[in-house]
Amino acid sequence: MQDYHSFLAEILIPEEELKNRVRELGEEISRDYAGKRILAICILRGGVMFLTDLIRHIKPLVAIDFMGVSSYGSGARSSDGQVRITLDLSTNISNQHVLIVEDIVDSGNTLASVIEMLRTRNPASLEVCTLLNKFSRREVDVPIKYCGFNIPDKFVFGYGLDMDEYYRNLTFIGVVDLEKYEAEL
Ligand code: IMP
Ligand code: MG
Is the overall model pTM greater than 0.90, yes or no? Predict the structure, then answer.
């Protein structure tokens, strides 16, 4: 197992900055949903850290549920538009105020499929909150209501985002030096 220091190109978003921005997002969501109940749907697995930190700052009633989607196999670094549901919700979302919580929107393929599917289940409202947005990589348009950070087209890891399933537990977002990472595999 590699120590991440050997392939960390730079720390893109340090822990303090993440904490502050997540709190701001929680406060904004709290204002927008005042008097309503929220169903926060976390897209597994990358969104887990963000979800658990975000909901600590949400004041209205909030329930959570999880949806597993797989957009690309292990080893691949971009999604191809083939999105599979690996775990479905256990909640009926009809007439609920659904807030999708995602780690990162890259091509947009994953979220576009999730949104299309959830819309057919008639939620009262459906919005997206993503921690990171790689806008320059967008292939399909997705409506993002809440966005933590717009980031450049670099492969990132940490704070929920993985490198081949590891390093999700790091407290910051780092940029991967892919050449160094792959050289050591
Ligand atoms: P999209 O379908 O291309 O928008 O890809 C979205 C999914 O790809 C995210 O939910 C992440 O799991 C993954 N992903 C995209 N970019 C990165 C990255 O830089 N690091 C780690 N995972 C990423
Ligand atoms: Mg991933």
Answer: yes
